[in-house]
Amino acid sequence: MPEGHSVHRIARQFARNFVGKRIGVSSPQGRFVDGAAMLDGHTMTDARTVGKQMFLEFDNGLWLRVHLGLYGAWDFAGDIRVDATVASANGRMGQTGMRGTGDAVLDSAGENSLRSIGAPRLTRLRMAENEKISVEPDGFPPDPIGQVRVRLLGTDVVADLRGPTACEVLDPLQVQAAMDRLGPDPMLDDSPAAEDRFVEVVRKKPTPIGRLLMDQSVVSGIGNVYRAELLFRAGLNPYAPGKSLSDEQARALWRDWAYLLKIGVATGQMMTMDGLSDAAHRRAMKRRADRHWVYKREGLPCRVCGTHITLEEMAARKLYWCPKCQA
Fold it and tell me: For residue 37, what pLDDT is reported?
């Protein structure tokens, strides 16, 4: 599932390439025909993200809310402007992200650490979880491929959405209600008030901190990778009740999340290791295995104490942690 940094980067992609343009909205799959008709032909006026949810506003006052979930992703094609440049780019964003056709720097998993937005793959299209196809479209716009729930088409850019957990049209009051249900997102609000909100909720809950960090009503954007890495960096046992954390520990968690999230948005990668030499940093940018303290390192020695990293299950998600450093 895309974590907060990816969705923020996808929203920036829409802001650069779609906001201010009249957009044709359709549902090639046929499952979103009524919603598409409400937005078709209107100008996109805003693109926002709160945690893992994205909200696209149109000039008729309606919004498209999208939650990619486990399998959702956006495919982009056309004259996609990435960062400060304009290039012909065809790529995928969401579960796996975007791959441009320019002089990208890719890691061994196909992740573009410099110019990508999202968490990229080498393939442009994923028809199913176990079926990956690379396609270069012939002409513009390319034909929809697979089960495209929503197509957003401008004069020179197109975005296809497939497999989202949520996709709906909302009015402004409904958008505000949806946002109000979400916890604070430090990319939107890194103020003392946002920090206080997080700390207050965490410190009154008997729920394990490992579950609270994944609760989007407590804090927005944290997924399995960031959860494991934040807790290791803080030296916190994932099973410790939230209310057992000191004020200082809770505030440090929030500030570290703000810090790591900004790195993720800037680079497109979940880089969670600090203090690396130049050579080690280059290795980490090329290989995910060198990028994290505990995530997906079950059975391997802890990078700090040598104890084998443990893999367990918490709330139906994989939990990676060091029983000694996080005791």
Answer: 98
